[in-house]
Design goal:
This protein is of the alpha+beta class and 80 residues long. 28% of the residues lie in helices and 10% in strands.
Amino acid sequence: MQSFDRELDVRGLNCPLPILRAKKALGDLTAGQVLKVMATDPGSVKDFQAFCKQTIHVLHEKEVSLFSRGTSPGRAARPA
């Protein structure tokens, strides 16, 4: 995982709030600094991909962890 300069926790927030909060946080950074965003909104990955295509920002990594009730990290949920 890449190092980062600032962390933004927007877990529990739904669209458009994760993007709006990230946009505000990015405004406080200088060129080359990295913002780590933690989000739980299911559409966040696509939203951030679109945001980066429309702006000068770069999406370096995307890590998605999906867990279902009754599972624990490191164990895949069984398909229904």
